[in-house]
Amino acid sequence: MARPRKNQQPDKHDVIEEFSEKMFYQIREVSEITDVKSHVLRYWETEFPQLRPDKGSTGQRIYRAKDLRLIKRIKTLLYDEKFTIAGAKRRLAGELRPEKMQMDLKLGLRENKLLNTIHKVKRELESVLQMLNRP
Questions:
Q1: In this structure, which topology does domain 12-133 adopt according to CATH?
Q2: Which residues pair with 25 in a beta bridge?
Q3: Domain positions in the chain
Q4: Which has more confidence, 97 or 31?
């Protein structure tokens, strides 16, 4: 990452990329990285079901890089694109749905291939059984 000049703030995107090597983040760190206050992050957790950071043994929230990306997306929808919370929820659900549909399709194709293979083996076994039963 290029170093910012004196009195120049680093780009938030660069900061997120820099921190993506780290596995876990505390809410204070996430707040600093994303420039979203801690109480807003806690509120978003109640509104967006996709945002569910783990909690450690002490009850502290433990965020991962995927949570940072999701928070960045939520922030963009709400602050830059001016979505309402309900609108942002719908948009996020729509963005995640094609991924799930693609995964379901892949699983369906695998099941279909497997089922076809089973039917083929069954026909071949029936054919062998008929040959064995001939006088």
A1: Multidrug-efflux Transporter Regulator; Chain: A; Domain 2 (1.10.1660)
A2: 63
A3: 12-133
A4: 31
User: For the segment 46-103, what is each residue's pLDDT rounded down to a tens digit?
Assistant: 999 889 998 888 989 999 988 999 999 999 999 999 999 999 998 888 876 655 555 5
Strand partners, 54: 62
pTM summary value: 0.59
What secondary structure does DSSP assign to 65-125, as a single string?
A: HHHHHHHHHHHIIIIIS---HHHHHHHHHHHHHHHHHHHHHHHHHHHHHHHHHHHHHHHHH
Six-digit token string for 108:
């369906």
Place of tokens 């090597």: 21
Which residues, including other chains, have CB under 8 Å from residue 48's CB and lie 6 or more apart? 70, 74, 88, 89, 92
